[in-house]
Amino acid sequence: MEITAVRLTGGVPQEVFTHWLSCLPGKRQAEILARRMRADQERSLCGELLARTMLARILHCPLPAVPISREERGKPFLKDGQDLFFNISHSGEYAVCAVSEHPVGIDIERLRKYNPNVARRVCSGAELALLAQSKDPARLFYRLWTLKESFVKLTGTGIGMPLQDISFSFAPDGTVISNQDNVLFQSFDFAEEYCLSVCERR
Ligand SMILES: CC(C)(COP(=O)(O)OP(=O)(O)OC[C@H]1O[C@@H](n2cnc3c(N)ncnc32)[C@H](O)[C@@H]1OP(=O)(O)O)[C@@H](O)C(=O)NCCC(=O)NCCS
Known about the structure:
Elements: E1 2-7, H1 14-21, H2 26-33, H3 38-59, E2 68-70, E3 76-78, E4 85-91, E5 94-100, E6 104-110, H4 116-122, H5 125-133, H6 137-155, E7 168-170, E8 176-178, E9 183-190, E10 194-201
Antiparallel strand pairs: 1-5, 2-3, 4-5, 6-10, 7-8, 9-10
Helix pairs in contact: 5-6
């Protein structure tokens, strides 16, 4: 698996934004421009360009020709049944993309304050017990949250599924242990204020 991250600071100048946008097919350009906030447009554009750049290098084609399509719930995938999978995530100043020969899901989140009410809605009993003992519940919560999101992004179902059912614990060396068969999870502290998780179906 290859993971690439791009950091966007201070906004993208209009001429660069226009040039980047022109590297995408017209329908995708319209979808990105339909986002209300400029920062969301930039994150989305950056994530898509990152994915196209990584995939174009492997497929030896120009960026607009990378055959990206979308499932019903929004998961982007490569058309034509190629044995190549990818997923995109963005949060705060970062856009990240994972490319793999196995189905993959990725999620990055900027750390915020720990909210036990949110944790009770999305965490299993075992995870809540880990959070109660933790010296840094915010970091642990976002580790669990990004792991769960990476899984619903691997499957493409999105956060409509009950997140408490996907449960994690950690071995003493940090290895992620999950209740999902045949899925390999990894989680990283990233750029101090962020947490990044990925998973692959094996
Ligand atoms: C997928 C989902 C969990 C992502 O949440 P998020 O943390 O806000 O977003 P991230 O930054 O991690 O990822 C966004 C990227 O994931 C990809 N993505 C979108 N939907 C996806 C899905 N269902 N599965 C996997 N990846 C998805 C896209 O590349 C998206 O980038 P874009 O917003 O620039 O197009 C959330 O959007 C979701 O639950 N979507 C499902 C919605 C749904 O069920 N719709 C059905 C009615 S049509």
